[in-house]
Structures
1.
Amino acid sequence: MNITEAAARIAEAGDGSPRRGRDPVNLPMIRNWLEALGDTNPRYEAGSLAPPAMVQVWTMHGLHPASTAGDPLSAMSVVLDEAGFTSVVATNSEQAYHRELRLGEQVEVRSRQRDAAGPKRTALGEGWFVTTESTWYVGTEAVATMLFRILKYRPPGPPEPLPSPPAAPPAAPPVDVLRPVVSRDTAFFWDGTAAGELRIQRCGECGALRHPPGPACPECGALKPEYVVAAGTGEVYSYVVHHHPPVPGRALPFVVALVELTEGVRMVGEILGAREFGVGEVSIGAPVRVEFVRVDGELTLPAWRLADPEGER
Amino acid sequence: MNPGDTLPELTVEVSPTFIVSTAIATRDFQDVHHDRDRAVQRGSKDIFLNILATTGLVQRYVTGWAGERAVVRRIAIRLGVPCYAYETLTFSGTVTEVADSACVIEVTGRNSLGDHVTGTVVIEVQS
């Protein structure tokens, strides 16, 4: 089962089993919390109330969880750990408090998975965003809700020499550049760049050009892909200057353009040399010419360079 | 309280002790919040503040300004850059909405790397 299927199954299962707080709402834990955070608000001790932002604390799994069976986030974490996404950071927390909790109240939480999105490239590494929705109850009364999002990611760099479980996942190959996924539909394009040709897919039935490549012609629906070799010229249709986050194999800032080819289709690629001439030189409508950047034996990327409008060639 | 009011800034020195004690007080035992070797192995520069502590600091900042009659109704935060040990976290805030007894405050917590947290807090002030 892949990650998407596992996520769908976990989401379909709905609410996990309710998890009871280890202790009822109590003053020692509240005082530890206030002391650690440096919070001197007298409201809580004077009113025998718990700080609202502490709600999640009451039902944390703790250092040695008895059992995480039936907890959707734990189940999803196991799936992602096994796939090598072993590290975690929280990214969002939206808590709503229906009322303040009082000393002695026993809370329990029910959680369900809302969403799992990935794999995504992030500044920390490739990962999955997992969103859960939790509701805390005292008896049958809902007292607080939370949307919580974490990023489970694969730490970049050398394999982790973690001395204890979880076992280190198989190391990912060193990331030098972001690599395209080459499929049967796109292999001709990448074979072309390796051979120094910019190839455009053409319908073998009606002759329409299309890019990016796909199995069916969007004009006539025929499943007869062929290709032609482009002249390698075009102009900037639109572009962005990428300042952040860092991208493997790229020096910041760099320019990514949507280039309209002379043949009519549009293609995304980096504008080379933008750091030397200043990214401000790039403009919509600027003429460009293709170049091929050989990354290694497996990958050659098409890229673009501003052409002299007078035309040396 | 009126829309446009700004809250006085609050600075918090985020020492390793602060990170560890808030992690334990929030019962978050993830190694990245108390073990620098593990944090570095996982690609971080140092141990860093956990999200429950950040939520708690946002609450402390707003209620420290609003006073003990303020009841917190909602805290929604988004984390940006991590808050590593030895950072200084500076909170700023602006009142964006006031309706009856409710008040909405936008909060930002910044460190040397950028915005660590941006969020919205809704409080109700009891008369």
Note: The CA atoms of residues 3 and 98 of chain B lie 6 Å apart.
2.
Amino acid sequence: MVGVLIRMRVSLLRNTLTGMQAVTLGLGAVFGLAFAGLGVWLALLDLGAATGDLLALLFLLWALGWAVGPVFLGGSGGALAPESFAALPIPPRTLATGLLAASFVGVGPVVTLVAFAAGVVYAVGSGSVAVTVAVLAMLLQLLVVVVFSKVVVDLVGAAITSTARAVVSAIPWALLGGVVAQSWLLLPLVSRVDGFDPAVSTALRVLPSGWGLLAVDAAARGDWLVVGAALAGLVVLFALLLLTWSRLIVRRTTRVVTVRPASARGGGRAGVRSGPLRLLPASPVGAVVAKELRTTVRDLNRALLLSYAIFFGLSVTLVPLLVGDTTYLAATGVIVALLATTGSAQLYSNDGTALWLTVLAPGTERADVRGRQLAWLLLVAPLSVVLTAVGLPLSGADWAAPWAWALLPAALGGGAGAIVLVSVFALVPMADPKKRARSAAGGDGSTGLVAWAMLPLSLLTVLPAAVFPLVGMLLDSPALQWAGVPVGLATGVLSLVLGGALAHRRLADQGPELFARMRSGPQSTIDFTGWAAGGRAPAAAAPQRPMPLVKASLVWALYLVGFVTLVAQVGVASVLSANGATVRAWFLALYLPQGQRPAVLAALAALAVAAIVGGWLLSRGHDKPARKKFGLL
Amino acid sequence: MTAAATPALELSGLVKVFGGKRAVDDVDLTVPAGSFYGLVGPNGAGKTTSILMAVGLLRPDGGSSRVFGADVWSDPLHAKGLVGLLPDGLAMPERLTGREFLTYLGLLRGLDEATTASRAQELLAVLDLEGAESTLVVDYSTGMRKKIGLAAALLHGPRLLVLDEPFEAVDPVSAATIRAILDSFVAGGGSVVFSSHVMVLVEHLCTHVAIIARGKVAAAGTLADVAGPEGLEHRFVQVAGGQRTGGEGLSWLAS
């Protein structure tokens, strides 16, 4: 049985390894391996007691990553669904064991195994018995983490049955994201020269993610009672989780919902144009706005993504309050507006093949795009304006006011322009809403990738608005600083108008092609030869040069390495260096004496730019449709 | 040419190639105004592909499609205003109720508010969807989806209805409702093209029929001409190349 399930999983994996999905998977593997390598490298360093603490922290992050990842990235896409086996005479526990074994076939478990190898490396100095204990403990840890992820994903998926629950369940994940994003701020709070604060250090080992390390440390000391207890604890935990999961499988396979209760409230004969939505004009644009607002509120997927983005923005600015830093509050509105674009990066793909209605209703493309922009603004703008108005005085950072009020309109307008632009130009086909198996668990990984690619794009749209406040601050001229506000308004309106215009023109010209992609996934080549009728120019009459998968992955990897190096290793490291921070973390330059840093930072910047330009040059040699297949423009 | 002589739908030389396979291979078809036209053919014969190209949802690799003389690809605004489509298996705005869907679609198509509201009300009543006032489209049954799709196709008062498998997986009661509406649409001067692989239904409903097999029109004309003395099913199996076997194999089933 187990063997058959594993073979099924391998076939599934092989069949899904195409195009964008393969790129996402490859990227995930690269990132994961880099993060895993960091742990192994930490274990090799001689940091004394701090090594154990850092590893315990890393293992905790891995466990949390396994819990959070599949819910929001839809990592369970290629997994075998228990429902498929509901009709077979297999006992649930056998099925749970088999499915669990099959789920170890994949990139995630392999990468995690590499990460946990850090525990074995850590034990090497303590003798061969400690190494044996470490190997055992780390394997057990992997088992626990994977089955933990299954249980969490099933529980969360089952719990999210209404919009309200979707919104609420986004909060803990967003908070977690905020803590991770701002961890470099929080690190000084818990770390001391000789390791973490003892309380934190203990807490990290009391949590199951630290039990493996506890066993290794105890083996090094020869404390066999603790070794036995820790390992037994992991075994018992694994057994309990497996039991829970097999129960959940029984629930999933015996309570298949075939008839769902009516779910829209406020029906009735006059219901459509009642409530606050009646204020919208009875026009094509008004109709689209109302449709979008209703859909966002009722579609769990969209509600979850948007509320996650908003709560994530909030937590990024609220988490620094833990270390008494209120400055971030001034930026809350702007950050929320920027992040909210990530939840709306696939507006058309989210509707699935419903695009046929827009293509067939003649001349409605403009109304459709403008309506979607307006709906997004109605959802995001009031909130971010209020957050800015409240956050500014609370932050106590008076200097930030011209910045916030200049960047906010730029971010809102830029966002409204960017979401429709990306939704149309970087459309990643998703399954039709009706066919999405588990309502709440995100799209597939590729849509997640496009969603986060929104951030640099949105940042780009606010840059012009930042020029005046910056120059004004350098020249100490308040008037010049406040001049940024009209500039921000202007760029916001411009991005909104321009982004929308580009999007609806594209929709009008390429509607059938976009619809075809929604129907059958990305099409690499569209043959127009012999098609002369019609006024529109054939887009691609030239012979196609397909882009190989390996090359596309390489381009993406270069882009990401380039951007990460530029932002973190050069940007953040320069700020830390300038502020004389003692934290070094993974910032290479900070391991060097102050005098040598500028040269290294410059070299890193040059390398990063070279990587980005190199990636761009690599992709240029191929035709546009071939590049688009991999999400490269 | 008089209005009556202009065909409701005229496909000429339609070609669509998917990855080297000619899914639709030089299809010519003339649907006279006022006719009830059935397209029959085995699964994968190219019916849906032809329909999508005919209404302007799929750009053909060759050939043209005209609706009452208006070219779907060079004069899309005019042509698309004359057509109502009921697609098979495509998504709708799933998180809206039926009435919301029709209301927004009407406004989007440029109807005024009062007209939209009264037409939506009438369609929901006739199609027996009033009972599902607070059910979202995503929760509709297959039959209800077909009916709301038909309502959406009729909303703007088209002169030509194009229906892809309107009776597929529909219960007999809903099917009777759909048939009655189509009959009265044709009686009122409208033209209907629909695809199906239920021969009996096509023989009952249609004035004209075309058999599509392997991407080509194998036979087309009035029902009497195509079906001949032995009936449509016989002709279909003959043309589409079916083999009536099934006696051999599966020996273990009986033991």
Note: The CA atoms of residues 106 and 116 of chain B lie 5 Å apart.
